[in-house]
Design goal:
This protein has helices at 2-11, 27-42, 48-54, 58-80, 84-89, 98-115, 119-144, 175-192, 195-211, 214-231, 235-254, 259-270, 277-290, 301-304, 311-316, 328-355, 366-376, 384-398, 411-450, 454-465, 475-488, 492-510, 516-529, 533-546, 551-563, 567-581, 586-599; strands spanning 157-158, 165-166. It is mainly α and 603 residues long. The chain folds into two domains: 2-11 and 26-408, no CATH class; 435-599, Tetratricopeptide repeat domain (Serine Threonine Protein Phosphatase 5, Tetratricopeptide repeat, Alpha Horseshoe), CATH 1.25.40. It has a two-stranded antiparallel sheet. α16 (328-355) runs parallel beside α18 and α26 packs antiparallel against α27 (586-599). The protein is globular and about 80 Å long. It starts with a helix and ends with a helix.
Length: 603
């Protein structure tokens, strides 16, 4: 357990496996958490004193009850979900299904209870968090300045010229998730009261600013304000630190190196409301009202939301795929309903309840960190890594009032617990292996395609389909890649073969609930290349059924109907596409305008 308590918080945010795994920034983190849960449960029988002591206080009992309720709700909502596989394994973009949730809460509880039993254990855990934050921050800062030996810079560069912004994701997959994670190393570093800790805190704050995340920046400021209120440092010292930091930041901001940051501020000025969030939140509440008690099921938002998306949201941000509500509470409410939200609020309440007792030493830095993380996730959805740190922080706070070890369990109960945890540990270990194995198979296909070996890729794709996918899929991606290979091939037989593989992958993609709207639109594109207008129309209407207010299938269908001479239908679809696009795309306005003019009988 001592090694696990250090290794898991350190490795989880940093693990990145490009070229080895297809979903290289998601799968390794989830696989590590599953493996960590297996090891923690396997070792649980040796640390039951920490768990029983944890449950010996009111905040600890509240955390245990709320955590158990959360897992029970997750199990029930998974069974009731429309897309059970999606609810169980999670979506491709973050893999936060029931399996991941069942791993994170127990491991957070066991590590939190273990680390809280002594100041030495807690210090080692904080050092691991600070070290992870320091490494991730340095990598993110290097990305901002144009040095990245691991990831393609095009993934996080947006815009052109003086308005180009750089939002470094570091090892977390996206700048927002990166910035939300850094909240924990910032306060862990401050808690250590050392040069190393101060370095982790300073680089963490710098990396958060360079990430351009408004939510995380605000959250860190609020957390520091809470810490100052707790510590009550001399106002002169605080003022001097703030003045010095402000001068350094202003000098950087106005220098040539601050160009990307100035561009980000310009973008924020053009969109002060935070993009689609307000409309997205409103539509998410409408979605939650459809199933208020149990929600649509874990991770089912990505599949179900397009049917609830409003025309106002589409007009404001056409062609934008909303994969989550970008709000922790709404994420839980839509996916697991009021029951899931009540359980989450119970966990949060247990952490704040324990904080009332005023934990001393390093533990007092946990409250501002937890409050800051909670605030940040009102604008940033949970990923596996951030979820783990959030629940670990809650467990550490809830356990901070534990003062003495509890009496050992009776032998029958001890052996029953050992048997249950051993079975669960084995299940998590197997799941971790299968997840990595399935993802590695997808990466093999991608490597062959990148190397210009489409025939080997097709064979690897066929081989991958013959094995359990463990919820992983990339059929839409491979359909497009094989279509490109078919187009580039000069051999007629090979062209036909790759086209068939592309069509097969496209068909499989339409059967996946995640991204179904894009899959059907892709099917329409492939059908058009085969000169099959009937299949094109069926695919476009299927895309419209999956996402009624997405302008693109309406636009394409209008052009198809116009070419077939179905004037009235073409005008109807064209007007709807024009309205939903809200003149954001000049090509849409131009082509639909031609359809409407050609259909107008007046001279």
């Amino acid at each position: 357990m001592p090694l696990l308590a250090v290794a898991l918080p350190f490795l989880t945010p940093l693990l990145l496996t490009p070229h080895l795994l297809f979903y290289y920034d998601i799968t390794p983190k989830v696989a590590l958490l599953l493996l960590g849960a297996a090891l923690a449960l396997a070792l649980a029988s040796r640390n039951l004193d920490s768990v029983t002591a944890f449950g010996g206080t009111r905040p600890g009992r509240w955390f245990l009850l709320a955590g158990a309720a959360s897992l029970a709700v997750t199990a029930v909502t998974t069974l009731l979900a429309t897309h059970r596989d999606l609810a169980l394994y999670g979506s491709n973009w973050r893999r936060m299904g029931a399996l991941t949730e069942f791993a994170i809460l127990p491991v957070a509880l066991l590590l939190g209870g273990y680390a809280s039993r002594s100041i030495e254990r807690l210090t080692r855990l904080l050092q691991a968090i600070a070290a992870a934050g320091l490494a991730a921050s340095l990598y993110g800062i290097a990305q901002y300045f144009g040095f990245d030996p691991v990831l393609p810079a095009a993934q996080y560069h947006v815009g052109e010229g003086i308005y180009e912004i750089v939002r470094p994701p570091s090892t977390l997959g996206h700048s927002d998730y990166f910035a939300a994670f850094l909240i924990w190393p910032v306060f862990a570093g401050l808690a250590l009261r050392s040069v190393f800790g101060a370095s982790a805190a300073v680089t963490g704050i710098v990396a958060i600013l360079l990430s351009g995340s408004r939510g995380a920046t605000l959250a860190v400021a609020v957390g520091l304000a809470i810490l100052f209120a707790q510590q009550r440092p001399r106002l002169r010292s605080v003022a001097a630190i703030l003045a010095g930091a402000s001068l350094v930041f202003a000098a950087f901001y106005l220098s040539p190196a601050g160009q990307h940051l100035r561009a980000r501020v310009h973008w924020i000025g053009d969109d002060p409301a935070g993009g689609a969030r307000l409309l997205l939140w409103r539509d998410s509440l409408k979605m939650a009202a459809a199933k208020p008690l149990t929600g649509v099921g874990p991770e089912n938002f990505v599949a179900e939301f397009p049917r609830y998306q409003s025309q106002e949201l589409e007009r404001a941000y056409p062609d934008f795929y909303n994969e989550s509500p970008h709000n922790l509470f709404l994420d839980v409410l839509t996916n697991e309903g009021a029951l899931g939200l009540a359980a989450l609020l119970g966990i949060i309440a247990s952490a704040f309840w324990a904080a009332r007792t005023g934990p001393g030493g390093s533990a007092q830095f946990l409250l501002p960190a937890f409050a800051a993380a909670l605030l940040a996730h009102q604008f940033i959805v949970f990923t596996a890594a951030n979820s783990f740190f959030f629940y670990l922080g809650a467990a550490l706070l809830a356990a901070s009032s534990v003062s003495a070890p509890a009496r050992p369990l009776s032998p029958p109960l001890h052996y029953a617990t050992l048997a249950a945890t051993s079975v669960a540990a084995l299940c998590f270990a197997v799941c971790s292996y299968r997840l990595v194995s399935a993802d590695a198979a997808l990466a093999t296909i991608q490597r062959h395609l990148d190397a210009g070996q489409p025939r080997e890729a097709a064979e690897a794709y066929r081989e991958a389909l013959s094995h359990p996918t463990f919820g992983l899929s990339a059929d839409l991606y491979f359909s497009r890649r094989f279509a490109e290979a078919a187009g580039a091939s000069t051999d007629y037989a090979a062209k036909i073969y790759y086209s068939q593989v592309s069509a097969g992958a496209a068909t499989l993609a339409t059967q996946q609930p995640e991204g179904r709207l894009n899959a059907w639109y892709n099917m329409a594109v492939l059908s058009a290349a085969r000169r099959d207008p009937s299949a094109v129309e069926i695919s476009l209407r299927s895309a419209i059924a999956a996402a009624p207010v997405w302008y693109k299938p309406h636009w394409t269908l209008a052009r198809l109907l116009a070419n077939q001479g179905r004037v009235d239908e073409a005008r109807q679809e064209g007007r709807l596409a024009l309205d939903l696009n809200a003149s954001k795309d000049p090509e849409v306005s131009s082509t639909i305008g031609e359809i409407l003019r050609s259909a107008d009988p007046r001279p």
